């Protein structure tokens, strides 16, 4: 498939994990890719893997100035922008209780939700010019209760965001969607035994790989999803089917 031939993608959080896999997938399908990350040296390594059709850009999604500069550098280099994949993020505190305090709730919300808003706002004028697409990486914990309330709530807010953006900007031809992954084997899981144990909660009896999510991001960003906007697509190995697979 060459769904992104002649197109330009900006992928945040692209130095590692799901973002890296997304950058590789979009480039494999023809896109020129801006590999945007706080870790510039690691981003440069990903660019080296892309086969000459990318740039590394320093980008911290918690800073509007940083995001604006990264998107501007991308458009300056490639002359256009067709895809925003906002992947950067992580859970700032594991198993945080609901009593975490205002500061922790605010920090997670600023990172996860407002960080996505910063990326969308910087990219939008360029995406209107090309009739482009936005894909935000949410989480299945924004759909079902899996612990860590601030992270889950901030990810859930992304689904509301894309519904509203899809309605507001649909007439200009820009689409907005979320992918909501469940457990994906990335550096976010430091202990491989945890991933091994988690296999059992999935009907497909495995956790996800970054490439599983990258394929879904690429689908929603592509013309194959030309009539899909405002949705949250679970990418979750059957997790939300319920406990039926555990019953003999
Ligand atoms: N791994 C999972 O099980 C899982 C499940 C659901 C959702 N997610 C989501 O997927 C996304 C990617 O997670 P991952 O597991 O690939 O993690 P990862 O740690 O492998 O990659 C995250 C990337 O984001 C970058 N990053 C961190 N802070 C940043 C910032 N302020 N600005 C720009 N870049 C920043 C990191 O340098 C890194 O390259 C996150 O949004 C995460 O919440 C992950």
What's the gist of this structure?
The protein has 248 residues and is α/β, with parallel strands linked by helices. The protein has helices at residues 17-28, 40-50, 64-78, 102-130, 149-169, 192-198, 210-221; strands spanning 8-12, 32-37, 54-58, 83-86, 133-137, 175-181, 232-235.
3D architecture notes:
- The chain is of the alpha/beta class and 248 residues long.
- It has one domain: Rossmann fold (3-Layer(aba) Sandwich).
- Helix content is 43%, strand content 15%.
- The chain contains 7 helices and 7 strands.
- The protein has helices at 17-28, 40-50, 64-78, 102-130, 149-169, 192-198, 210-221; strands spanning 8-12, 32-37, 54-58, 83-86, 133-137, 175-181, 232-235.
- Strands 3-2-1-4-5-6-7 form a 7-stranded parallel beta sheet, sandwiched between helices.
- Strand 5, helix 5 (149-169) and strand 6 form a beta-alpha-beta unit.
- Helix 1 (17-28) crosses helix 7 (210-221) and helix 3 (64-78) packs parallel to helix 4.
- The longest helix has 29 residues, at 102-130.
- It is globular.
- The model has no long low-confidence stretch (mean pLDDT 95).
- It binds nicotinamide-adenine-dinucleotide.
- Residues 12-13, 15-19, 37-39, 59-62, 87-90, 137, 139, 181, 183-184, 186-188 line the site of nicotinamide-adenine-dinucleotide.
């Amino acid at each position: 498939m060459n769904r992104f031939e002649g197109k330009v993608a900006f992928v945040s959080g692209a130095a590692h994990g799901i973002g890296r896999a997304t950058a590789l997938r979009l480039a494999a399908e023809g896109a020129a890719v801006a590999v945007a990350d706080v870790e510039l040296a690691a981003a440069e390594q990903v660019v080296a893997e892309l086969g000459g059709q990318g740039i590394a850009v320093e980008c911290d999604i918690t800073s509007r100035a940083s995001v604006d500069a990264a998107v501007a550098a991308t458009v300056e280099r490639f002359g256009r922008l067709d895809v925003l994949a906002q992947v950067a993020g992580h859970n700032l505190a594991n198993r945080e209780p609901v009593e975490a305090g205002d500061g922790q709730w605010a920090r997670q919300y600023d990172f996860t939700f407002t960080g996505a808003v910063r990326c969308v706002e910087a990219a939008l004028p360029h995406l209107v010019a090309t009739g482009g697409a936005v894909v935000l990486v949410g989480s299945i914990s924004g759909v079902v209760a899996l612990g860590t309330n601030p992270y889950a709530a901030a990810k859930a807010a992304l689904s509301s965001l894309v519904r509203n953006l899809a309605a507001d900007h649909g007439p200009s031809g820009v689409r907005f969607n979320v992918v909501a992954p469940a457990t994906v084997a990335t550096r976010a899981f430091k202990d491989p035994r945890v991933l091994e144990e988690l296999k059992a909660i999935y009907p497909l009896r495995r956790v996800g790989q970054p490439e599983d999510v990258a394929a879904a991001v690429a689908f929603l960003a592509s013309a194959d999803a030309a009539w899909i906007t405002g949705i949250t697509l679970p990418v979750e190995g059957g997790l939300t089917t319920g406990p039926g697979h555990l019953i003999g």
